[in-house]
Amino acid sequence: MTPELQNSGQAPTETEDGMSFAEMLAQQEQDEGRFALEVGQRVKARIVAITTDTIFVSTGSKVDGIVDRAEMEEGGALSCQVGDTLDLYVITASAQEVKLSRAMSGSGSLAALEEAHAAKMPVEGRVSAQVKGGYSVDIMKRRAFCPGSQIDLRPLADPESVIGQTCTFLITRLENHGRNIVVSRRDVLERERAATLEQFLADTHEGDIRQGTVSRLSSFGAFVELAPGLEGMVHLSELSWGRVEHPEDAVQVGDAVTVKVLGITQGDKGLRLALSIRAAQESPWNSAAKTLNQGDVLQGRVTRLMPFGAFVEVLPGVEGLVHLSEFSFTRRVMKAEDMVAPGDTVSVKIKDIDLDRRRLSLSLREAEGNPWDRVRELVRVGEDMPGTVEKRAPFGFFINLAPGITGLLPLAVLKNSAQGKSLERLAPGDAVIVRVREIDTAQRRISLAPAGEAGESGEDWKQHAPRTEASAPLGTLGLALQAARAKKEGR
To answer: What pLDDT, in 10s, does the model give residues 371-391?
Structure first.
């Protein structure tokens, strides 16, 4: 400031935004200090130009950075373009030039290794072999050792899977003029995961839909990788709308999946992400109204048994209940496991649909059909046919003729039969040949007689009901005939 200005008492000149030149100078020095780069520092750099040999990037400092183009090529093709943002490390930094790289590589000197060690700058290395306690790694034409616990974030399912791979490592120990080098890949992965996690938490909230890859399976669910080194867990119950017993029944390692973020928890053991595959999908009940109709007969899979019946999945994620009373026309079922087992494929008929309550009422027996609907195809009047004694009643034997079809062999008929004495000794389960006398489909009743005998016509089922005498007078002869007939019939 000139003496004239000092003596005049005038204030220092200000810029349009109200800052003095002194304040602007201080701000500039502060900004330059903020963007000063150091060797080994990790920065996000945006590509501003690409030439035949070099990629120019903006690092936020006064000097643009340069990256060797060959390092960014994969199979001869460039894997990035102008405008992309790269994660890079500062290799050299001066007022004239900033050189960056994904990691230090090549045939560097011991001084370069010492510089990478001091700056905690990643170096590229090729895993050459598995040795006792870990792996042998070739780094910048030197042999290094990576402990087994430091090759990944978690133990590898296949320890030999990394052999031959080129990875990025941090030098954790450098001794005896480079003859003892220990490296860690896990430290690099943890550093990358921390950066990924920070960005993820800034961009992700509960309820968001994300894309991921199934990274591993466990007994209680599947882990999905949403970003490099960042996993979330999908519980068994969230793998599918259908019932899943084992995770491999729903997904496989390497599958690309869409998940919904159910919860984000930061605890003592780190970040925990609760994810759901099924919540990211439309509920199958929303489309059930279009595909299911009352009376339909469908194939389904028995998923679970209950004291009152069995649940059957008729569509992925859509289950219905078969009550015990709907299992069979032919037998009384007390336990569902007497008829079916989980995993069985069965035919069921839809009896009722309640979409609001997401309930289906199903029937096994109606899907098979009521045997009485075709009784005259199975049983013919006047024919002899084999049967099995179901039980003995005070008035006769119930004989099973076909699944779900039972007839009565009355004791009154046996008394007048030459086979009566032998047949009266029948017991449940015994096989017997009988003749069909009469079929009443309305009442679902069949009257039987011993094989080869026609028996008397009439409805044997009603012979044990109280009789009603005729109201019209019969006269002396009529009464005598009636008494004789009653005596003959054993009344």
So the answer is: 777 788 788 888 899 999 988
